[in-house]
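Researcher: Re-running this chain for the archive, since the previous output was lost when a drive failed. Same request as before.
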Amino acid sequence: MKWSTGRLVMSAIVALIVAGAACSQPTQVPPAPTASAKVDVASVARGGLLYDKWWKVTAGASEPKGNHPLWASQSTNKAAGSATWRCKECHGWDYKGKDGAYGKGSHYTGFPGAWGAAQKKTVAELAAFLGDSANPKHNAVTAFRPADIADLANFLKYGLVDMAKYVNYAAKKPIGADAARGKSAYDRLCSGCHGPDGKKLNFGDASKPEYVGTLAKDNPQEFLHKTWVGQPGSQPPMPSALVSGWRIEQAVDVLAYAQTLPEK
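Model: Regenerated structure tokens:
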């Protein structure tokens, strides 16, 4: 997907479509289900941005030019360059790698997801793994600072969404969503930036446009990830549903409404 604009952590391992600077924040909503009151949700969301495209988030980082050191260990995914450094390219937008949506198709690598390790390990253990210099092929991002590693570990532990609970993978449709509620949220919080029809911002180009509706229909898992944590490098910054205090079900409602918007 071409969103406006690693050395990425690969194998261990959610732009608020409803937002922008002109968009107000939701109020009086329950806290997110995956983060307790003691969790720094801003850190969790930033970790989700790193998972997406870390060089847009890490201070002083540059977009990688060559392939990630581990990329040569697979031959099915033909991506090259900076795409191979994105956590999502190996582990997927559902964080389950070969056992999830990327278990087939052009993004298949055979690499495991982050989900299992995130469920079993503590934040400290995840951070230790991600920062282990004894695993240089995996932990190849020399631009990462301790704060980056801490944020990514927090995202893995507290920010992952079990996409299979909310998306029918075969139909690419949200499960148990209310599009009417989603429309209300979109009209209040999204249309100022994305337009009433979702076409104010084009994430693609003139020859191959890509809008809110395009992404929602084509890749609902990516839509939910970006709605949950934000869009790396966007200007103005897109608010995170997680940081804004949303429940994931509210983001799923917006997904349902976004799928009714035009694709072209």
